[in-house]
Amino acid sequence: MAWLNLGDVLNGHAKKYPKKLAVKDWRGKAWTYSELNIRANKLANGLLNMGLRKGDRVAVMLYNSAELVEIYCAFAKAGLVVAPVSWRYVDKESSLRQ
């Protein structure tokens, strides 16, 4: 039995349900599985063309959104590791310096 990552699952869904809604965010942005797969493939290829390599870790600070799902799928396709950073993060020392 082979393990599937998020990119593999998206590929399968894009083939089986290309026109079915895959993601819709709070702003109303919505993509089908086919659209999400195309966007994730483009982003994955772009990241690899920038010099990132399988196993590299990349910090991501972003609101919950359709783009966040796209990023997670693209990173899985490229073999990159997501290091999520909360958009609510506040450096404790920055408030002490004032």
Describe the structure.
With 98 residues, this protein is of the alpha+beta class. It has one domain (6-96): 3-Layer(aba) Sandwich (Rossmann fold), CATH 3.40.50.980. The chain has helices spanning 6-16, 33-49, 66-78, 92-96; strands spanning 21-24, 30-32, 57-61, 81-85. A two-stranded antiparallel ribbon has the order 1-2. α3 links the parallel β3 and β4 (81-85).
Key terms:
alpha+beta; 98 residues; 17% strand
| Low-pLDDT windows of residues | none
| Count of helical stretches | 4
Order of secondary-structure elements: HEEHEHEH
Spatial order of the strands forming the largest sheet: 1-2
Topology, element by element:
Elements: H1 6-16, E1 21-24, E2 30-32, H2 33-49, E3 57-61, H3 66-78, E4 81-85, H4 92-96
Parallel strand pairs: 3-4
Antiparallel strand pairs: 1-2
Helix pairs in contact: 1-2, 1-3, 2-3
Could you give a quick summary of the protein structure above?
By secondary structure, this protein is α+β, with helices and mostly antiparallel strands. Helix content is 47%, strand content 17%.
